[in-house]
Amino acid sequence: DQQVKQNSPSLSVQEGRISILNCDYTNSMFDYFLWYKKYPAEGPTFLISISSIKDKNEDGRFTVFLNKSAKHLSLHIVPSQPGDSAVYFCACGGGYNKLIFGAGTRLAVHP
Amino acid sequence: DGGITQSPKYLFRKEGQNVTLSCEQNLNHDAMYWYRQDPGQGLRLIYYSQIVNDFQKGDIAEGYSVSREKKESFPLTVTSAQKNPTAFYLCASSIGTGGQTRTEAFFGQGTRLTVV
Predict the structure, then answer these.
(1) What is d(CA A73, CA B109) in angstroms, rounded to the nearest whole number?
(2) Which residues of A touch B101 (CB under 8 A)?
(3) Chain A environment of B96 (Cβ under 8 Å)
(4) How confident is the model at residue B97 (pLDDT cuts 50, 70, 90)?
(5) What is the pLDDT of residues A35-81, one digit of tens each?
C-alpha cells in the first residue's frame, strides 16, 4: 500500500517554462513534506520543505504548495533550466522523522 | 567537512554470503536511516534509528539487520535471507528525535550492491 504517490514517472518541459511536479499522500498523520532532487548513482539532495501549518513555501525558483484537504503537494520550478533535469522525489514525514518517499518523477528540461 | 559517508561505492557479493554496508556521519545527527532504491521505484525504508542502541524496522526489513552502537555509525548487513539484494542502497541522517523536530534528511552517495 503506497502511502506516497507520484503518478507521473516522467515530465518533459521546455527551458524557461514552468515545471510542475505532483505528489499525493494518504496518511493524514504526515505533517512535514520535502522534495529531493537526485542524479543517477548519487544520493538525493534536499531541495525544499513545507510543514503542515503552511500552504506555500518559496525558495528562489522553487515553490512547494500543500493542499492538506486534498492530501496533495506540488513543486513548481520556474523558470526551468537544463540543470534541473533529474529525478525528483517527494517525501512525507510525521512522528519520529520517519520519511516515506514517492517513486519519483524524472524531469527533462530541453532547449 | 561535515557529511555522511557510505562505503564502498560498489560491492559484489556471491549468493549465500552476508555483506555489510558502512554508513558514517559526522553531523552529530541523532537519526539515521537505510533506504533501498530499485529501478523505477522510490526509496523504500529498510531500517531507521532515532537514538544509539535503538532501531526500528522499516517497510522492507526482512533479510536485513542493523546495529547502532555509536551515534556516528549505522551499518547495514544484507544477509543471505534477502532474496533479491541487488539494488542501490542509501543511508541518511537527520537531526531530531521524538518527533519534536522536522528537518531534512541528508543522504550519502549510496552503495550499489550486486549479487553475482
Answers:
(1) 27
(2) 97
(3) 97
(4) low
(5) 999 998 889 999 999 999 999 999 999 999 999 999 999 999 999 99
